[in-house]
Design a protein that fits this description.
- With about 375 residues, the chain is mainly alpha-helical.
- It has one domain.
- The protein contains 12 helices and 5 strands.
- The strands form 2 sheets. The protein has a 3-stranded mixed beta sheet with strand order 1-3-2. It has a two-stranded antiparallel ribbon with strand order 4-5.
- Helix 3 packs antiparallel against helix 4 and helix 8 packs antiparallel against helix 12.
- The chain starts with 14 loop residues before the first strand and ends with a strand.
- The relative contact order is 0.14.
Amino acid sequence: MQDRDFDRTISHTGGVEYPTMVAPPPRRKDRYWLHILLFILTCISTMYAGMLFSTATDASITSLGDILANLYRGLPFSALLMLFISAHEFGHYFAARAHNVDATLPFYIPMPISLFGTMGAVIRTRTVVPSRRAMFDIGVAGPIAGFVVALAYLIIGMLTMPGIESLYAIHPEYRALATLPAEGTRFGGFLLFGILKKLLIAPGRFFPGMNEIYHYPLLSVGWFGMFVTALNMIPVGQLDGGHVIYGMFGRAQRKISRWFVGFLVFSGFGTLCTLLRDLIREHHQGRFFDLLGVLLGPPLEWLTRHAGWWMRGWLGWLLWVVIILVVIKIPHPPVPDETPLDRKRIIIGWCALGILVLTFTFTGVFELVR
């Protein structure tokens, strides 16, 4: 197998490559200046995202002077987000060092035009990962470390949730409304979020809609952390979930990964049906649209009535399927030592898969219009 650099920026964080079956190259020195520069730039870009989250709209931020004057507002968001990313990445890093695998420090990825201001970070291993046990330990350490941090954010954020006046301070126009708006960019729910909300938010106590939680740094970063953890735990190829599944089940990883990719197709395909249904409803002129309406209109309307939840999936899962098939690939590369995992690691692996179940969001991030 040819040694190559595998950059997993698409997973938003936790990007790790594990070169296998090749002679270890001479150890290279870390370029500390580059790691520091990327860290600083990512801090700035996440502060910019947090600054926008702290306001009702970005209409008041119209110039560079406005950005510089208000950038401090994004500091809490940035600090929480950078801590989460660092926890995930250094989980991988210290696990690699524990197995005498040479790994780089994290390369943070600033992305000021993205929703959260970053695409996370990646690290690279520069020597062979010797065994399934080492591969498992390195792969599982990042998601578990990040999950613990994100879980703490959500718990603290819910326990310290301020009253509705905090939202009115950002949206004064809401005071005149009988009910709070539901439209806008919404963060999809997941099982663990619902459980925590049920346990920690008393009936009648104010809690923002999923289209407003971005104003609350602990909740928004906690949600993002869980979302990223779920993405990384997708059990394919060289994603963290792929390492976990390969460590637990060996060559059976390929079959499990194919089934999960099929599940992602199922999760995203309903949204395509929704787009097609809306296209037919608009009654475009032409024989082609008339034929679509006759052939597909009735079954799509039936699905809307009886499987509306499926048609509200996330189109992003189909994009992820393309990324998996083209970039990440389904098979996991082999390692020199195929010794199966011990019982303790198997238990940890099932716990990590439980994290995937608890944090997977069917609807992702979506725009709800009135």
